[in-house]
Design goal:
Belongs to the eukaryotic-type primase large subunit family. Residues 12-180 form the DNA primase large subunit C-terminal domain. [4Fe-4S] cluster binds at residues 22, 101, 117, 157. This is DNA primase large subunit C-terminal domain-containing protein. It is built from eleven helices and no strands. With 189 residues, the chain is an all-alpha fold. It folds into two domains: 11-86, no CATH class; 106-187, no CATH class. The N and C termini lie close together (12 Å). The structure holds iron/sulfur cluster (SF4). Iron/sulfur cluster is lined by residues 20-22, 101, 104-105, 117-119, 153-154, 157, 173, 176, 179.
Length: 189
């Protein structure tokens, strides 16, 4: 099923309703800090490309945040290239694909990084807080925490999906962009 491209004016609302926690976290951090380190820019940037954000909108979006931190000149010089690169417009002109859960789960975020999978990389305390903010009820929350503790990260994410959408997700979550499109098809049906 095809969806219309995500547009900048809807992005905050859509992030809240349909982004999996890994992307929601990056998105919120970007809005908060006006900056993300390389791993975060890659993980979120390719995801946004996957949900249909055009290159022009992506440049506007990243610039609106980064310029508040580093100024427009430095953004144009140091960061715009990476965004065009993600869209295959620079370097080897590879059309890079968004990261799968497996790739994100096996990443190794360092200090100050916000990429990775929260079910694996957050402390339990931070995970609880993040799930609460997503509106996961306390009963479902314990099941999610239990799955995460037992290293079933994608199952934990699937249970979160089911809790916030009040709908089953039989196929399970294996890709953040799949989470997004499954969410949109439920919300738009
Ligand atoms: Fe993101 Fe996948 Fe982790 Fe869910 S399981 S938070 S979609 S990496």
């Amino acid at each position: 099923k095809e969806f219309t491209e995500i547009s900048l004016k809807d992005i905050d609302q859509v992030a809240k309703s349909s982004f999996p926690l890994c992307m929601r976290h990056l998105f919120e951090k970007l809005r908060e800090d006006h900056h993300l380190k390389h791993g975060g820019r890659m993980q979120l940037g390719l995801f946004l490309k996957g949900v249909g954000l055009t290159l022009d909108d992506a440049l506007v979006f990243w610039k609106s945040e980064f310029s508040r931190k580093v100024g427009t000149e430095r953004f144009d010089k140091e960061y715009a290239y990476g965004i065009r690169h993600n869209y295959g417009k620079e370097g080897k002109r590879v059309d890079y694909t968004p990261y799968s859960c497996q790739k994100i789960i096996s990443s190794t975020p360092g200090v100050g990084d916000h990429h990775g999978c929260p079910y694996r990389h957050f402390s339990e305390e931070n995970l609880r807080a993040a799930l609460g903010k997503m509106g996961v009820s306390s009963r479902a929350l314990e099941d999610v925490i239990d799955k995460a503790r037992n290293r079933h990260y994608q199952l934990a994410c699937t249970l979160t999906f089911e809790a916030v959408h009040n709908s089953s997700c039989d196929a399970g979550v294996n890709h953040p962009n799949q989470y997004f499109s499954d969410s949109q098809s439920i919300l738009k049906s």
